[in-house]
């Protein structure tokens, strides 16, 4: 994920410094962005969102030193056999702040709230289609426990654990109305090959569940412990892009 370069979220290697190693960081289609619903354009041609993991299965959960991810393996729809190469299908529970300082990834201006975002990246012919799901502090999300209860196994950077039979669609809100715009990966290499699909409806997560994410570390077991918090990139300039909506405001 880091390629051959070192990057992070500190003062000397954080988002403000990424452009030195990744010039595309100052490109015209960078993510995340502020979403201003009043400025979004309703597009009746946008199709309803359909997300299914029936053709895949979760393999493992891992800590890459920047965030934590769940990997999936594609299955052949006709034979049911596992394909030889891993699918580009990831669940990325990412970008959480410290208590009282939530992250700013895809800030929605109609309610002035800031959210932790789950991003679900799936392979597309022209790049990545990424579905962002907002999480709002509130009631406990029953399906979230399946994920948060596994985090202790990947506390340290570079750790991986088996994580079978997890269906990420259980984390989605009932309403799948969304905004969409052309963007990028939110971490290096920051490739501008992403179509972001950001659901308008947040789901709830409890303080207790959020605290489990904050037990993760940026560092290995042998290194000085650095808590994995504030691992998010600030909103980037829109630079003439149009945010489209699948619904009428």
Q: How many strands, which pairing sense, and closed or not: the largest β-sheet?
A: 11 strands, mixed
| CATH superfamily annotation | Alpha carbonic anhydrase
- Topology as H/E string? EEEEEEHEEEEHE
Mean pLDDT: 79
CATH architecture: Roll
Q: Please, how many domains?
A: 1
Proportion of beta-strand residues? 15-25%
* Text of the CATH class: Alpha Beta
Report the principal-axis shape.
globular
**How many strands appear in the DSSP assignment?**
11
Briefly note the CATH topology name.
Answer: Carbonic Anhydrase II
Radius of gyration, in angstroms, nearest whole number: 18 Å
Low-confidence stretches: 77-104
Broad structural category: mainly beta
Helix content: under 10%
Q: What is the distance, rounded to the nearest whole angstrom, between the alpha carbons of the first and last residues?
A: 37 Å
* Alpha plus pi helix count: 2
